[in-house]
Write a structure and sequence with these properties.
Strand content: 15-25%
Oligomer: single chain
CATH architecture of the largest domain: 3-Layer(aba) Sandwich
Number of strands: 20
Radius of gyration: 25 Å
Shape: elongated
CATH class of the largest domain: Alpha Beta
Structural class: alpha/beta
Helix content: 25-40%
Number of helices: 14
Length: 536
Amino acid sequence: LSAIISLSAPAFAAGTLGEKDAKKSAEFTITQRNLRSYLTFIASDELEGRDTPSNGLDTAARYIATFLDRWGFVPKGDNGTYFQKITIRSLILDGAKSTATVAGKTLRYGDDFLVNAASLDNATIAASTPLVFVGHGWLIKSKNIDAYKGLDVRGKIVVVAPGLFPPTRDLTTDGMGTDWLAPSEYAAKNGALGIIELPRSTDPEAWGRRVASTKSPRRVQTEPVSKDSRIDNGLPSITLSPTAAAALFAGEKITLDTALADPKTKTEAGGFVFGANKSANLAIGVQVEDATTQNVVAVWEGSDARLKNQYVALGAHYDHIGIRTTPDASGDRINNGADDDGSGTVALLSMAEALGSKPENRPKRSILFVWHCGEEKGLWGSKHFTENPTVPITDIVTQINIDMIGRSKPDANDTQARNRTLSDPNTIYVIGSRMLSTELGEVVDKVNRDYTKLSYDLRYDDPKDPNRFYYRSDHYNYAQRGIPIAFFFDGVHVDYHRPSDEVDKIDFPKYERVTRTIFLTAVAVANRDKAPALKK
């Protein structure tokens, strides 16, 4: 493959693009063939779904770093490497060492209860502790919903009915901590000592299936930590079996069936204090296990003596969700994540190749590449990088995030409900490009208008959109630091977080066009005389 690229300043001066030069620069480097080749490896079974942490994710990191070194990128990880290491600390549950006594009955792990969460510093509630039913357990200020209204739970264990509100879909205002608190966080804020969650169903077979899929020892909490810190996982939490839950509600003001009633008919918690003879104590067996993972970080140094100390950041998450406990209908257990976010991972790699193929022609500003780990766990990698940046965070003038850009709606006759909002072959969703900087939005639009003429769909470009996509990928941690962002996304599809998210479903002509457009957008920002200004 002939790798010829033109990124000279005249072609991109002040954010403008020469059509001929733009096409030339992309055609010889960012190609369907290269995208397919890189993605076939990143989304292969050998990488076992790229969980965080995992050997497969480490292999992906080394693969990316090998190319970066070959193309002449400056390492911006730890100690002159491309890897910014992150310690991941897990709490490992030992069911055989976990006990619970509820309402005077000693419960057996598996038969009668399962553990949801535990803290090393708070894994035991030794005394007989009073119980309070708090219904759904949620606080949502904008909806006047307060599960703890009129209830004192300090020093008690709360009993929570699950599933009364979906995790994000109906929460259309500000994020957790400002407008709403989920049951575990709200329980801790109100001084509860622990949580007993009711089963989602009274069907004993459903409970049996859950027990069968729950291994012990197993991880009950994993999160990144700083050196010598401990996981603060809040409150110990267990789920009761249908039989144990029914016994708990025997003789109380409501039955278990009432407590689990259709959530759509209930907005108030209907909480109460259990009888004086109903109490509980918990002892959860946990131990600590440490592992390391990494962000992959590199810089393509700019050409301008002054502006090269500013950075246009390109980001994607190279992790996915690993291996399923049980196989899908086809017998597959490996979630390869070709679109999520193999497509973003490889798009970044192809953009790096485009820059590296013509090192004498560089954008004015430096281009910062960050492949984030742990996005699927809770934006871990981007949180770690923005809290511990390897370049001055105030010198990052824009962050462009790529998370799922390779899929298109199959055809007009597709009947899959989850494909309903998947973008078509000429469309990509753009989120956030004007939220912090009108000027960035103008550059994003102009590059597309002058080059590929994709259709930019802005339906999700709103922090209050019910899907909350603005909060759900790595750009968010940069935006929190006041850095203008643009997020490119193809939409949710039927294969999202399933083993069926495979390379053969990628729309490579679209994938190539979108990748080229994002690449040229980054270069256009890098060549502006002034960085995109923040809104006043």
